[in-house]
Amino acid sequence: LSHFAQGFFSVLQKLKGTTEQELRIVLLGLDNAGKTTLLKQLSSEDVNTITPTQGFNIKSLTSHGMKLNVWDIGGQRKIRPFWKKYLENTDLLIYVIDSTDKKRFEETGLELSELIDEENLKGVPVLIFANKQDLATASPASEIAEGLNLHTYRDRAWQIQACSAVSGEGVQDGMNWISNNIVNKKRDD
Ligand code: G3D
Ligand code: MG
């Protein structure tokens, strides 16, 4: 298993001890951000690709009491009403950014801020992976956080985590944050 998968399942195991509920996670980001790479080790037989008639793909992974929906966003404004229902009852949003793709920082920031405003994602904790930090051209996570105005997010827990989906570096730290902020929070509910 990848670091991501290991971290993921250890989080789930903790959660399983605290709740009967399914953990619902959506993993979003522009195309090419690194979502599939993050999931590579998880996505063998369990993944179904739902292709709703509206013309977008959602990969859905159900495993260990977790339902994980993964899809590319951006350039999908017209069909947004159709995918909104996949955001219902979300426990956690993981948003992946290609830290080397400066040309699209504005676009990815806009998409994120619109997601944050979605009714179905109100108050939902968000973990942002500033991915591809193994590349010399990557912007540091702190700079990306500033560009995204993360400090203005006051209605939810959030974290930005530098990582490389390829090497696995930083991925476990992100998972630890989930474990501390989602699992423990659910236990208090
Ligand atoms: P997506 O599912 O979000 O669209 P992918 O993104 O996981 O398909 O990744 C897009 C490209 O970025 C892939 O390259 C992938 O190998 C690369 N990539 C993803 N994460 C990292 C990372 O952390 N570091 C580096 N260096 N590359 C990464 P290709 O060449 O296959 O298109
Ligand atoms: Mg992909």
**Spatial strand sequence of the major β-sheet:** 2-3-4-1-5-6-7
Query: What coarse outline follows from CA principal-axis ratios?
Result: globular
Largest sheet: 7 strands, mixed
Bin the strand percentage.
Answer: 15-25%
Round the Cα radius of gyration to an integer and report it.
15 Å
Helix/strand-derived category reads: alpha/beta
- Provide the list of bound ligands, each named once: guanosine-3'-monophosphate-5'-diphosphate, magnesium ion
**SS element count, helices:** 6
Succession of helices and strands = HEHEEEHEHEHEH
Average pLDDT number = 81
Query: What's the CATH H-level homologous superfamily?
Result: P-loop containing nucleotide triphosphate hydrolases
Report the CATH topology name.
Rossmann fold
Helix content: 25-40%
CATH second-level architecture:
3-Layer(aba) Sandwich
Measure the end-to-end span.
31 Å
Q: How many structural domains does the protein architecture include?
A: 1
Give a description of the structure.
Its main location: cytoplasm. Mg(2+) binds at residues 36, 53. Keywords: Golgi apparatus, GTP-binding, Lipoprotein, Magnesium, Metal-binding, Myristate, Nucleotide-binding, Protein transport, Transport. It is a single chain. The protein is α/β, with parallel strands linked by helices and 189 residues long. The chain has one domain (3-188): P-loop containing nucleotide triphosphate hydrolases (Rossmann fold, 3-Layer(aba) Sandwich), CATH 3.40.50. The protein has 6 helices and 7 strands, in the order H-E-H-E-E-E-H-E-H-E-H-E-H. The protein has helices at residues 3-16, 35-39, 80-83, 105-116, 141-147, 171-188; strands at residues 23-30, 47-50, 58-63, 66-73, 92-98, 126-131, 158-162. A 7-stranded mixed sheet has the order 2-3-4-1-5-6-7, with helices on both faces. Strand 3 (58-63) and strand 4 (66-73) form a beta hairpin. Helix 1 packs parallel to helix 6 (171-188). The longest helix is centred in the C-terminal third of the chain and has 18 residues, at 171-188. It is globular and about 40 Å long. It starts with a helix and ends with a helix. The model is unreliable at 41-45 (pLDDT under 50). The structure holds guanosine-3'-monophosphate-5'-diphosphate (G3D) and magnesium ion. Magnesium ion binds next to helix 2.
